[in-house]
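Quarterly update from the structural biology core.
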Amino acid sequence: MSALAAAQTLLFVPGDRPDRFSKALDSGASLVILDLEDAVAPDSRERARTAIRDLLATAEPGRVLVRVNPADTGDSVADLALLEDVSTRSPGALAGVAVPKAESRAYLRQVSDASGGAPILALVETVRGLRVAETLVTRGPGEPELDVRLAFGALDFAVDAGGDADSLLDAARVELVLASRLAGVPAPVESPSASIRDLAAVESAAKHAVALGFGGMLAIHPAQLPAIASAFRPTDAQIDWARRVVGAGSGAVQVDGAMVDAPVLRRARRMLAAVGQAS
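Predicted structure, tokenized:
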């Protein structure tokens, strides 16, 4: 399993702020995403590429993703050139590439090839992207394997969809969860919370994502990371329950007065696997 597939907390950092890189890498985030898109002004992106190239020449492998610009922008050519350069000079340095406004598996393949086969975090931020989400994570006939995990960009999606009702956004979230499940890829990554000081709101959003079936969440500030990690970590009571379910074995058995069938057993095993315990 790749580092991207297992990641639960993914922290964005502007690519033109190398003064923040070390702090981000020491923040406890599963992965750090160095941004070349929304967080960086167009006239600062070349400087950001230089800073990212320098970091990846020395950084511990498997800790850093780069968010490139969308396929239909003038920056995509320079971003792909950066990925090619990094994959040649520092093979294995990239944990993956985040692709915003993902709508085409062909472009995901192009990004993967440029990065030496790095895993892809496909950010679904448009209605079209949502409609083709299953194709983004499904290998076509005769197509080489492509390591893709979906993520949700709620703010951009709301703008594109023309509404921001919770029911609309949750409907989109459910579609991403189901598309991932059907394709057999890791559960998707939730959109970041805009709250930085209200950490209870961050944890509430993360718990909601867990309940919907998400496997991780993006962050825009290191202060958000403990709240997100807490939400995605099974509680001691849940882990104890999972151990007892697995220990009860298969067949017609009961745990805590409830019948344990195959789906419950699978859920318990998945919970133990998430915390690195044998099942």
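Residues 166-183 form the longest helix (18 residues).
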